[in-house]
Amino acid sequence: MDRRDFLRKSAIGTLGLTLSPALFNSCGTSASKETSSDRLQLSFKPYDLKLKHAFNLAKSSRTHTPDVQVQLRFGEWTGYGEASMPPYLGETQESVCRFLGQ
């Protein structure tokens, strides 16, 4: 598959894609489902990111950050990402997993 085919199929797939709630599990486990290669697959799991050095602010210090690891698959292509939830942003692993599961 060349670049032009990938971009065309990605655009068509994105426009015509509806994600099924059956693809997602509750937070705490990776969500995946075997489907045909023309479907977008999302998996995610909570992860406690341990910092090599303490992160210090004027009012607090922390040695870890709650995180959610995310994986997207479309055919032979796989992408990885993360959502970090430092305490001052007001998000939690549970709220992110709930959002991704909708």
Give an overview in words:
This protein has two helices and three strands, in the order H-E-E-E-H. It has one domain: Enolase-like, N-terminal domain (Enolase-like, domain 1, 2-Layer Sandwich), CATH 3.30.390.10. The protein has helices at residues 3-16, 93-100; strands spanning 40-56, 61-74, 77-84. The chain is of the alpha+beta class. The chain is elongated, with a radius of gyration of 17 Å. The protein has a three-stranded antiparallel beta sheet, with helices on one face.
Question: What's a quick, concise take on this entry?
Answer:
The protein is built from two helices and three strands, in the order αβββα. The protein has 102 residues and is an alpha+beta fold.
Q: How is the biggest beta sheet arranged?
A: 3 strands, antiparallel
Structural class: alpha+beta
Within CATH, the superfamily carries the name: Enolase-like, N-terminal domain
CATH architecture: 2-Layer Sandwich
Uncertain residue segments: 12-26, 28-35
Write the layout of secondary structure elements.
Layout: H1 3-16, E1 40-56, E2 61-74, E3 77-84, H2 93-100
Antiparallel strand pairs: 1-2, 2-3
Features:
elongated; three-stranded antiparallel beta sheet; 102 residues; alpha+beta; 3 strands
